[in-house]
Design a protein that fits this description.
By secondary structure, this protein is α+β, with helices and mostly antiparallel strands. The chain contains 7 helices and 5 strands, in the order αααββαββαβαα.
Length: 201
């Protein structure tokens, strides 16, 4: 019996459906985080002995995300690091100097393009070009870096101050509440009226 003409094509389609597909590519965010972890921890992924560890993991992740953004030609950069303050290719940082090296650190960071530089004790603050993060991590006078977080309304409240509850329009004029005595009296009168009605029937 001759083979139907549609059978080879049907078998090919069935084989295509049943063949296990390739595993999906690693998400971009995961690969960028892996790069940041390698810079921070080193090849062994342990400790803080990576080549750029002094920059801190948050800043390294932001740096790799910014590089990917520039490669892809995006419209606006939105880092995944919560609260990071980024504008015009710069990120706000608080850099901590080694002992007795605050002025040296400030000069080193200004040489990397730090703007709005300010020093308080061993902390040098300012806005650093994001593409200078690897160079920042290699500054000899640097001990470490933290990212100052953007302030929220909750952050600006005095410590221990109670949070104001939202007020609804109906809550502005509270209705009189019925006490247990009022409720009991109504039940009693209802029972008396019920007995009177049944008696008249």
């Amino acid at each position: 019996m001759p083979c139907p003409s549609w059978l080879p094509a049907g078998l090919l389609l069935l084989a295509t459906v049943l063949t296990p597909g390739r595993s999906p590519a690693q998400p971009r965010s995961d690969s960028l985080r892996a790069e940041a972890l390698r810079d921070f921890h080193g090849p062994d992924r342990a400790g803080k002995d990576g080549p750029l560890a002094k920059a801190g993991l948050d800043l390294l992740l932001l740096y790799h995300e910014y590089r990917a953004f520039r490669r892809e030609g995006g419209d606006s950069f939105a880092p995944s690091v919560p609260g990071a303050r980024v504008t015009d290719g710069h990120v706000s940082i608080d850099a901590i100097a080694k002992a007795s090296a605050a002025q040296e650190l400030r000069a080193d960071l200004c040489a990397l393009g730090l703007t709005d530089a300010a020093a308080a004790g061993r902390v040098v603050s300012g806005r650093l070009p994001i593409n200078q993060v690897p160079a920042l991590a290699r500054v000899e006078s640097l001990r470490g870096v933290v990212l100052p977080r953007a302030k929220t309304q909750r952050d600006l409240s005095p410590p221990g101050a109670p949070m104001a509850a939202p007020v609804s329009p109906s809550a502005s004029t509270p209705s009189p509440s019925r006490g247990p005595t009022d409720t009991g009296m109504l039940g009693f009168l209802g029972g008396v009226l019920g007995v009177l009605v049944l008696t008249e029937l």
